[in-house]
Amino acid sequence: MGFKQVAIEDVIPLRHVVLRPGKGIEACYFEGDEASTTRHFAWVVEGHVQSVATVMTSSRQIDGESVPLQLRGMATDPCLAGQGIGSRFLHALHEELDDSWWCNAREVAVRFYERNGLVRIGEAFDIPGIGTHYVMVYKKTAGSG
Fold it and tell me: What is the pTM of this model?
């Protein structure tokens, strides 16, 4: 029960419902999903996948520092919204990762990420067919995690 590493097949259903509604299932597979360094994670309770995310090696320069990991495809079951599952999942992810990471956060998720230790970097940008996003970063520091 709780946080665990899973297979790509375990993250696709929530990606489809939350991140790519109305699109074909093929839109739920991201470049890099099958890379040997990519890891998929889920928050699972009694066999039910409640929240998912993928972590890929994709370095980005932020404030003069190389941030090596990218979080992609984070989604939580909409039926469970407001119960703190996404925050518990993200906290477990912070503890699992050995480094800082960044993500492209949907505009509607920025406050959630800020409450969970991420900082917004730069201006908004549009991902065609998906919507407005911001780059956000979680910087692991001594004593965090």
Answer: 0.91
